[in-house]
Amino acid sequence: MTISNPKGLCEVSQGSGHPVLVCPGLRKGQVWVDHYGSKQTKFIVAHDSALSCLGLTQDGRLLATASSKGTLIRIFNALDGSLLQEGFRLKIVMVAVSLQPKFERSPKTKVQA
Q1: How much is the average pLDDT of 68-96?
Q2: What keywords sit in the KW lines (predicted)?
């Protein structure tokens, strides 16, 4: 059972062959991280206010969260729950988070100045 989740926040990552599921935890601002491969569950206190968005990398190692307050985006190690990075943002409605572990520019990519 989790806290009320009217936005249906939930993310699953299967890229490494070991599924990881994240969703709101039991308390406001908390994330429930379930590592099915290792049968471990972790609760990460991500924010003081309710979650507005969350996302995982394809391999399930990094977790990004944003709160309903709209001031912070935080990146956590999904394996041990440690905070890796925190960034401020303007008060906007965050609809989705997409995490890419590595950016590779293809030969066809053009950058305009």
Answers
A1: 78
A2: Repeat, WD repeat
